[in-house]
């Protein structure tokens, strides 16, 4: 039995390139592309996490169009993927939502281009997924990464994504796809 997997895209508290804490903007690409990846890998819910009401309105307009408007009939596949998108104002509210759905708090795992004392491997997280004991909430940061105090609050940090060289600055949409594929595990496509 596999544990349920949830995703979150965190827009605050995020560092900018000057290491100041900011809220980043929600992008149309992040909504569409990550929701389609989440649907492909059977993620239960994809939380867009942002504290500003103006950004919540943007998310609502985009998702409503594809879930209830003309977009639903125009492209049912996109509508199906966007059904998993949920807006929430904070990481804590995403954790509370998963806890309410599942009846138990999720294991919180985030991503970063750096390593931390609680950094774990893909194999470790695959074992958590396959144990089925607790749901997992996998969080991706935007900008130049999540604020340090927030990073310290997670159960685990997933090891960075590296290719064949030492460059490591993927866009979040690519990172989400690569990470979900790595977590899918042993040749799932051959089953």
From TrEMBL:
Protein name per UniProt:
RNA methyltransferase
Question: What CDD domains does UniProt report for this protein, alphabetically?
Answer: TM1570-like
The record places domain tRNA (guanine-N(1)-)-methyltransferase C-terminal at 4-185
- Tell me the InterPro entries matching this sequence: RNA_MeTrfase_C_dom (IPR019230), tRNA_m1G_MTases_N (IPR029026)
GO MF, one example: methyltransferase activity
UniProt keyword terms in alphabetical order: Methyltransferase, Transferase
Presence of the UniProt keyword Protein biosynthesis in the record:
no
GO biological processes:
methylation
């Amino acid at each position: 039995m596999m544990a349920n997997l949830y995703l979150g895209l965190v827009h605050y508290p995020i560092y900018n390139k000057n290491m100041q804490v900011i809220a980043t903007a929600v992008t149309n690409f992040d909504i569409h592309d990550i929701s389609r990846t989440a649907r492909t890998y059977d993620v239960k819910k994809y939380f867009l996490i942002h504290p500003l009401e103006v950004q919540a309105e943007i998310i609502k307009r985009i998702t409503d169009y594809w879930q209830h408007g003309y977009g639903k009939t125009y492209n049912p596949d996109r509508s199906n993927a966007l059904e998993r998108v949920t807006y929430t104002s904070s990481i804590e509210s995403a954790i509370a939502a998963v806890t309410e759905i599942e009846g138990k708090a999720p294991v919180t795992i985030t991503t970063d281009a750096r390593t931390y004392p609680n950094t774990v491997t893909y194999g470790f997280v695959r074992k958590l997924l396959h144990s089925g004991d607790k749901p997992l909430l996998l969080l991706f940061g935007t900008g130049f990464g999540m604020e340090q105090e927030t990073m310290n609050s997670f159960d685990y940090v997933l090891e960075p994504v590296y290719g064949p060289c030492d460059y490591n600055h993927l866009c979040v949409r690519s990172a989400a796809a690569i990470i979900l594929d790595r977590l899918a595990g042993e040749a799932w496509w051959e089953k």
